[in-house]
Amino acid sequence: MAEPKKRGCLGCSLPIVIIVAIVAIGIVVIGFLAGPIGQAMFHLDLPSWIVVEKPAIHLAAPHLFEIGGFPITNTMLAGWFTVIFLVVGSWLITRRMKIVPNRIQVIFEFLLGWIYDLCESVAGKENGRKFFPVVCTIFLFVAFNAWLSLIPGFGSILVGGGGHEYELLRGANTDLNTPLAIALVSCVFVAFYGMKSIGFSWVKQYFNFGPLLRSIDGIFRGKLNFMDIFSNFVNAFVGGLEFLSMLIRIISFTFRLFGNMTAGEILVVIVAFLVPMAMSWVVYGFELFVGFIQALVFAGLTLVFVTMAVASHEGESHENKNTEEKELLKEGT
Amino acid sequence: MGGISELGINWGVLVTQIVTFVILLVLLRVVAYKPLMKMLDERSRRVKDSLEQAEAVKAQSAKTEEELKKQLEQAGRESQERIERAIKAGEEIKTKAQEDAKKEAEGLLVRAREEIKRERDEAVDGVRREFADLTVLAAGKVIEKSLDKKEHRELIDKVLEESTNLKKN
């Protein structure tokens, strides 16, 4: 039997579609009128609860309260919220894992398995398995910090603190401390595996003064070799540049994430201020995407850096590894 | 206020966030990664096992089939051989029978011939004896009658004629 032909559009009958369209247009119009642009153009007297106040933007996270002299900020609370969400969620899913998974386990395995495959494809089978926990934690923490702060009502709970009112929760990524913390962890992680795989020479690639001092020492013993001194000086200088680039790496990690997330937050606030109620969802979709991309970039770059730190050891014995490093660098940028 | 604190860098918060991250890492390791890895490994192991098993079963069945085929072939060959042997045996029996019959027939023929020859000889002997008797008889008669030359002649002719007749008979 053929299905009865659907009338109207989008599976609804025509009157319902028209009503929905009118309501949507009404929300857009009211939102526009209630926003500052509409107010400036038409000077309508709308009820005060519709009109949005001018948003105040703080870069620094406010201290909500102190425990034993230790300040607690709303971004810290949000970070803990993310931690609790991730841990409890993972626990609920992995509590009863089955060989033949149910739907939510499939989603969980797909997301983590995808990151795991990424680790394996970049770092190789053995190292990928070692790097996976940290890389995956970075991804999950950054992504869920971003996504959870998009839940409606996340930033709407206000608490009074020192005469001002602040949000109880604010996306942890929008506090400069969080990206910096993750960047430092990432850097320590890279340094740890660099030292573990190539030992002390990992430090030597940054502080390469030994040969230079030896050749300078040679001058006093009467063995003057300008070429030697020059090349060792250049080597030491390159080491210094490497060290500088590592520091810059941390800073770029930090400010990339902080900038993107804070800009997103501000964008949401501004759009909600300019056209209340109507246009925020567009920005929301965009922010979901940005959160995912930033998490992927953070985790992916960490993965690439740690792979390079481990691979440079093998590069000494095998010349052809250098090309691999270059490819990884290309991937990283 | 100014400089870096305007951005919100704060040692306390920074350290707290690092600790938070490390706690998250440790907890997720226990709660998410280990079970996940175990599950993925277990699953890949099972898939590998079942693939290997399937391969083994396939090999086994192929082997069995091969064996069966071989057995069938052998059985066919054996039965063929048996039939051939039977045919050969039958033919041998036939040939032997034919030969025996031939030999027997030949024996019979030889014996018959011998019999015939003996009987003829006997008959000839008998005729001879008869002839002699006749001769004696004739001689006696001759003696009795005291024959003249002419009569003597006639007598002999007569006897001879008689004997010829006898021979003819």
Can you walk through the features of this model?
With 333 residues, chain A is mainly alpha-helical. Chain A has one domain (63-313). In chain A, 69% of the residues lie in helices and 5% in strands. Chain A has 11 helices and 4 strands. Chain A has helices at residues 14-34, 36-42, 74-95, 103-123, 125-148, 177-198, 201-204, 210-220, 226-274, 280-317, 321-332; strands spanning 63-67, 70-73, 158-161, 164-167. In chain A, the strands form 2 sheets. Chain A has a two-stranded antiparallel ribbon with strand order 1-2. A two-stranded antiparallel ribbon of chain A has the order 3-4. Chain A starts with 13 loop residues before the first helix and ends with a helix. In chain A, 31% of the residues are buried. Mean pLDDT of chain A is 80; it is low at 315-321. Chain B has 169 residues and is mainly α. Chain B has one domain. Chain B has helices spanning 4-7, 11-145, 149-168. In chain B, helix 2 (11-145) runs antiparallel to helix 3 (149-168). The mean pLDDT of chain B is 86. Chains A and B meet through strand 2, helix 3, helix 4, helix 5 and helix 6 of A and helix 1 and helix 2 of B.
Task: Name some characteristics of this structure.
heterodimer, A: 333 residues, mainly alpha, two-stranded antiparallel ribbon, two-stranded antiparallel sheet, 11 helices, 4 strands, 69% helix, 5% strand, B: 169 residues, 3 helices, 94% helix, 0% strand, rod-shaped
